[in-house]
Amino acid sequence: MRIAVIGTGYVGLVSGVCFSDFGHDVICVDKDPAKIDRLERGEVPIYEPGLDEILVRNVEAGRLSFTRDLARAIDGAQAVFIAVGTPTRRGDGHADLTYVMAAAEEVAKAAKDYVVIVTKSTVPVGTNARVREVVAAANPELDFDVASNPEFLREGAAIDDFMRPDRVVVGVETERAGAVMSEIYRPLFLREFPIMVTDLESAEMIKYAANAFLATKITFINEIAALCEKVGADIKQVSRGMGLDNRIGNKFLHAGPGYGGSCFPKDTKALARIGQEHASPMRITETVIEVNEEAKRRMLGKLRDLCDDSFNGKIVAVLGVTFKPNTDDMRDAPSLTLVPALVGGGAKVRVVDPQGRHEGEALLPGVTWEDDAYAAAKDADLVVILTEWNEFRALDLGRLAGSMRVKRMADLRNVYSAHDAERGGFEAYVSVGRRPMG
Ligand code: NAD
């Protein structure tokens, strides 16, 4: 099977690399010359654990290559996956489909033989039908089908998620397209991972419904955490007690500073917009979006309270700025709200992140980057744990507090406990949904 993948971002690159590892011949295309140059040198332009090793293995085996030339990539391909970005459109919350439609048109103009044009990007219901129209208009002679194949991988665990998925969802209109998609995913089918074949609209809907549900679950537990603080309950115990119920499950029940990242914020907004357009309001999702914004504001309030109502002149060490551990992705990370508010309030902010610096330098002006938590905390007035990277999970709290000017910690991921902080010599400790120290 010969496959082309358009877009070498978090989804396109992982998909292309994994398809080649299945044994298919894969060419990945990107219009960004810097990304293709790096990939051709065997370098991975994003941080995703384990990706480099599989990439190199498949390039060496001659099954995987990279190009900027879309026409060359799709020459002879039986399937072309569109995995370009679908960010929030400015102003109305709708998913911006400019990149998807541009890619579809380029494929239409370059393709010669039968091809399945597969949308892997997250797109609103009806987009694949529009892709079909765009392709047919651009190349009326072309024999093709469209397919929807939404992606569910998580950054930071993307390889495992792709190779061992909970399910693969494939939306098709013809048996012929279904046969091509089955052939592509055959290695997963043989290992009995569920492959679900649906119509186009259901496949498109599954992705938004799943992401909105997960965002709801996180937001629900964050709201319960806020109430726990008021009534003196402990969110960790509450989450565990809830999660042991199989109907609820223990995943996505960790209270924190509000969800961020490249998917939940934009996909919840897009779903709300789709609901409005079809006069079927997504009231729960709309509320989730609002409550999540409130959660981020609440975190800022916690930091302000800890700093005696003023950030001015305070030295604040922020541990972690990526939206979650094991990725370099900063899109819609809570740090993008909290850090500028600290800087704007007059704090001197020092930042540490194992992978976030490359992206973060441009996004977080006015901060100083440090190599480790201890360097960041030296003489500081407050340390904030914002992303629960492993290296922040086992800090020597005595050493950390020992070098601080004022020993205060805001643990927005509930990595430690008030007891740990007290033992380490901290004078003040707050977390999310639990009693503060003292
Ligand atoms: P990304 O921004 O990391 O990558 C997109 C890539 O597409 C960029 O490298 C860009 O240069 C390239 N591109 C855009 N237009 C192109 C064109 N016409 N020709 C060639 N290359 C082009 O995006 P991403 O995070 O990989 O997300 C892609 C899609 O997958 C989005 O719709 C997203 O919602 C969805 N998704 C993302 C994740 C995730 O965890 N990141 C998970 C599931 C689904």
UniProtKB/TrEMBL annotation:
<dbReference type="InterPro" id="IPR036291">
    <property type="entry name" value="NAD(P)-bd_dom_sf"/>
</dbReference>
<dbReference type="Pfam" id="PF00984">
    <property type="entry name" value="UDPG_MGDP_dh"/>
</dbReference>
<dbReference type="GO" id="GO:0051287">
    <property type="term" value="F:NAD binding"/>
</dbReference>
<feature type="binding site">
    <location>
        <position position="122"/>
    </location>
    <ligand>
        <name>NAD(+)</name>
    </ligand>
</feature>
<dbReference type="InterPro" id="IPR028357">
    <property type="entry name" value="UDPglc_DH_bac"/>
</dbReference>
<dbReference type="GO" id="GO:0003979">
    <property type="term" value="F:UDP-glucose 6-dehydrogenase activity"/>
</dbReference>
<feature type="binding site">
    <location>
        <begin position="252"/>
        <end position="256"/>
    </location>
    <ligand>
        <name>substrate</name>
    </ligand>
</feature>
<feature type="binding site">
    <location>
        <position position="331"/>
    </location>
    <ligand>
        <name>NAD(+)</name>
    </ligand>
</feature>
<dbReference type="InterPro" id="IPR008927">
    <property type="entry name" value="6-PGluconate_DH-like_C_sf"/>
</dbReference>
<dbReference type="InterPro" id="IPR017476">
    <property type="entry name" value="UDP-Glc/GDP-Man"/>
</dbReference>
<feature type="binding site">
    <location>
        <position position="86"/>
    </location>
    <ligand>
        <name>NAD(+)</name>
    </ligand>
</feature>
<feature type="binding site">
    <location>
        <position position="207"/>
    </location>
    <ligand>
        <name>substrate</name>
    </ligand>
</feature>
<keyword id="KW-0520">NAD</keyword>
<feature type="binding site">
    <location>
        <position position="260"/>
    </location>
    <ligand>
        <name>substrate</name>
    </ligand>
</feature>
<protein>
    <recommendedName>
        <fullName>UDP-glucose 6-dehydrogenase</fullName>
        <ecNumber>1.1.1.22</ecNumber>
    </recommendedName>
</protein>
<dbReference type="InterPro" id="IPR036220">
    <property type="entry name" value="UDP-Glc/GDP-Man_DH_C_sf"/>
</dbReference>
<dbReference type="GO" id="GO:0006065">
    <property type="term" value="P:UDP-glucuronate biosynthetic process"/>
</dbReference>
<feature type="binding site">
    <location>
        <position position="155"/>
    </location>
    <ligand>
        <name>NAD(+)</name>
    </ligand>
</feature>
<feature type="binding site">
    <location>
        <position position="324"/>
    </location>
    <ligand>
        <name>substrate</name>
    </ligand>
</feature>
<feature type="binding site">
    <location>
        <position position="30"/>
    </location>
    <ligand>
        <name>NAD(+)</name>
    </ligand>
</feature>
<dbReference type="Pfam" id="PF03720">
    <property type="entry name" value="UDPG_MGDP_dh_C"/>
</dbReference>
<keyword id="KW-0560">Oxidoreductase</keyword>
<dbReference type="GO" id="GO:0000271">
    <property type="term" value="P:polysaccharide biosynthetic process"/>
</dbReference>
<feature type="binding site">
    <location>
        <position position="35"/>
    </location>
    <ligand>
        <name>NAD(+)</name>
    </ligand>
</feature>
<dbReference type="InterPro" id="IPR014027">
    <property type="entry name" value="UDP-Glc/GDP-Man_DH_C"/>
</dbReference>
<dbReference type="InterPro" id="IPR001732">
    <property type="entry name" value="UDP-Glc/GDP-Man_DH_N"/>
</dbReference>
<feature type="binding site">
    <location>
        <begin position="152"/>
        <end position="155"/>
    </location>
    <ligand>
        <name>substrate</name>
    </ligand>
</feature>
<feature type="active site" description="Nucleophile">
    <location>
        <position position="263"/>
    </location>
</feature>
<dbReference type="Pfam" id="PF03721">
    <property type="entry name" value="UDPG_MGDP_dh_N"/>
</dbReference>
<feature type="domain" description="UDP-glucose/GDP-mannose dehydrogenase C-terminal">
    <location>
        <begin position="317"/>
        <end position="418"/>
    </location>
</feature>
<feature type="binding site">
    <location>
        <position position="266"/>
    </location>
    <ligand>
        <name>NAD(+)</name>
    </ligand>
</feature>
<comment type="similarity">
    <text>Belongs to the UDP-glucose/GDP-mannose dehydrogenase family.</text>
</comment>
<comment type="pathway">
    <text>Nucleotide-sugar biosynthesis; UDP-alpha-D-glucuronate biosynthesis; UDP-alpha-D-glucuronate from UDP-alpha-D-glucose: step 1/1.</text>
</comment>
<dbReference type="InterPro" id="IPR014026">
    <property type="entry name" value="UDP-Glc/GDP-Man_DH_dimer"/>
</dbReference>
